[in-house]
């Protein structure tokens, strides 16, 4: 069971790090701490994980709690606690949690499909997605880089997430 957990941890580490980095406002060191604490807690509580449950979602729930604990411990650090942003992030990351349809790597298929779908977005939406999700900028930082407001960037991300969800879903349905 320990080896299986190690394999799953390595598979989910990049997604979890990206998620934690967003929660910790782009601070990579804090994000890495959150990821490490998440895996320690997950390993200690592995018996509470039910087979068939969404492993990525379970890990993100632990990470979210660890990020909030970190926030409480160091009031000068800002964690994202806006439920709309967390819900949007969950929607994006949930795409990567689906089981593989065939023997091929489902995550690789999704990533390739997601990349193609991002390329199809208009420039404004594409820039917002890349700044926040690829570069790990906060809404405020992305807004400054895009010469916009955080509210406008959040709206662009919401629209982009909806379009990406549809696009990736359609592409995956079309795959044999």
By CATH, the architecture of the largest domain is named Up-down Bundle
Provide the number of structural domains.
2
Rg over C-alpha atoms, rounded to the nearest angstrom: 17 Å
How many β-strand runs? 0
- Which CATH class of the largest domain? Mainly Alpha
Low-confidence stretches: none
Shape: globular
For the biggest sheet, the summary is: none
What's the end-to-end separation, in Å? 33 Å
CATH superfamily label of the largest domain: PhyR, sigma-like (SL) domain
* Percentage of residues in strands: under 5%
Quaternary state of this entry equals single chain
What is the chain-wise order of helices and strands?
A: HHHHHHHH
Q: Please name the CATH topology of the largest domain.
A: Butyryl-CoA Dehydrogenase, subunit A, domain 3
Descriptive notes:
The protein has 2 domains: about 80 residues, Orthogonal Bundle (Rna Polymerase Sigma Factor, Chain: A), CATH 1.10.1740.10; about 100 residues, PhyR, sigma-like (SL) domain (Butyryl-CoA Dehydrogenase, subunit A, domain 3, Up-down Bundle), CATH 1.20.140.160. The protein is globular and about 45 Å long. The chain contains 8 helices and no strands. Helix content is about 75%, strand content about 0%. It has about 180 residues and is mainly α.
